[in-house]
Structure formats: structure tokens, C-alpha cells
Amino acid sequence: MKIVMVIDRELPMGLIANTAAVLGISLGKLFPEEIVGRDIQDADGNVHVGITTKTIPLLAGTKDQIKGIREAIGAGGDPAVTVIDFSEIAQKCRDYESYVDILTCYTASRLAYLGICLYGPEKKINKLTGSLGLLR
């Protein structure tokens, strides 16, 4: 299984970091046993909370490329690929209920994505993102 995040390369650094954080939190919630490692105690007895056990490359994309990936997976989705998206609507809302209220009024064609996270079989993920380079 492979994880990638594709983030709009035109975003300022703060929004890139925020987008990656939001996508990562949602991914960890969905797959805590597969993605988050156990807590570790160091030699001094300090506990270090488990972090990801998987490599998560951040790929650079454009808004159009991100939307294209989202559309390629389709409304019904591919059951083998988990998709988490983060839109301009989500970024601008002050709380989750506002996000829910606004997003339910939008069609998929009107959404602009800041980033997307994909988790699934390596072949399928590579087919969707193989042409994208690392975000630098």
C-alpha cells in the first residue's frame, strides 16, 4: 500500500503545511493501526507518541491536476483507493459545521482543491500520480 499527498504548488508555505496537516490527520483517523506506530519510551523514560510508519511523499501539482486526479477516481470512488481532499471551502471555513453547510451546496465541478491524499495499491497510486514531481 502506498500513500501520496498532492498539494497545489502555488500555495504559500503556511497553506502547504496546513493542507498536509489536515490530510494527514484525516488519514491517521481512518487507518490508525496501519499508519501510526506504537508509542516509544526513550532511555530516560520519556514517552514519544507514535508517528507514521509509512513514507508520505508530498507531490507538487496544480489545482487542475489535483481536480483531475479527484475526477479520475470518480464520484463512486475506487474501493481500493482511499481519497481525502482538502478544498478552498474547507480552508476558508472557521468551523466544521460551516464547512458541512457550505460543502453540501456545492457540486463537484465547482470545487477547487488545495490538496488530495491517496492511499491504496502502489500500482493504482502510481498510475494516478506518476507524472508528478516532489513538492520542493
From TrEMBL:
InterPro entries: DUF2000, Pep_tRNA_hydro_II_dom_sf, UCP033763. Pfam families: DUF2000. Gene3D superfamilies: Bit1. This is Uncharacterized protein DUF2000. It comes from Anaerospora hongkongensis.
